[in-house]
Fold this protein.
Amino acid sequence: MKVKLLKYALENKKHSLAAHALVYAMVKVKAEENGKKRRPQRQSKRS
């Protein structure tokens, strides 16, 4: 669906909408990556 929105925005020269769609997609991908690659938290050096 995001590709359709991006294509529509570019075809109709709505650059602000195109930029919004790209940023939204990048944020979504980054969030998915963070969910899959969760690293264990480091233990505190104070013990």
In short: The chain is about 70% helix and 0% strand. The two ends are 51 Å apart (CA to CA).
